[in-house]
UniProtKB/TrEMBL annotation:
<feature type="domain" description="GP-PDE">
    <location>
        <begin position="1"/>
        <end position="61"/>
    </location>
</feature>
<dbReference type="InterPro" id="IPR017946">
    <property type="entry name" value="PLC-like_Pdiesterase_TIM-brl"/>
</dbReference>
<dbReference type="Pfam" id="PF03009">
    <property type="entry name" value="GDPD"/>
</dbReference>
<dbReference type="GO" id="GO:0006629">
    <property type="term" value="P:lipid metabolic process"/>
</dbReference>
<protein>
    <recommendedName>
        <fullName>GP-PDE domain-containing protein</fullName>
    </recommendedName>
</protein>
<dbReference type="GO" id="GO:0008081">
    <property type="term" value="F:phosphoric diester hydrolase activity"/>
</dbReference>
<dbReference type="InterPro" id="IPR030395">
    <property type="entry name" value="GP_PDE_dom"/>
</dbReference>
Length: 61
């Protein structure tokens, strides 16, 4: 059986961030499920679940 986290290890981390993805591996997950969306320019990819982001979801690592 494989263990995957949904949007990363969110306990103490923002979802869909590199930190949350790395914590998933640290705690033994086999993989991470996350959402990819096109940016407005249709050239940039954004790792986000919702089409509209609020300020609390914007994290730069």
């Amino acid at each position: 059986m494989k263990i995957f986290t949904h949007r990363g290890w969110s306990a103490g981390n923002n979802e869909n961030t590199l930190r949350a993805f790395k914590k998933s591996v640290t705690y033994g997950a086999d993989g991470v499920e996350f959402d990819i969306r096109y940016g407005v320019d249709k050239k940039t990819f954004i790792c986000a679940h919702d089409q509209v982001l609020n300020d609390s979801e914007l994290t730069f690592e």
